[in-house]
Amino acid sequence: MSLFKKLFSKEKKESLDKGLEKTKTSFFSKLSKAVAGKSSVDADVLDELEEILVSSDVGVDTTLKIIDRIEARVAKDKYLGTDELQSILREEIAGLLAQSNHGNETEFVVPTSHKPHVIMVVGVNGVGKTTTIGKLAAQFKKAGKTVVLGAADTFRAAAIDQLQIWADRVDIPIVRQDMGSDPASVSFDTLQSAKASNADVVIIDTAGRLHNKINLMTELTKIKRVMQKVVPGAPHEVLLVIDGSTGQNAFEQAKQFTLATEVTALAVTKLDGTAKGGVVIGISDQFNIPVKYIGVGEGIDDLQVFNKVEFVDSFFK
Question: What is the pLDDT of residue 156?
Answer without folding.
Answer: 87
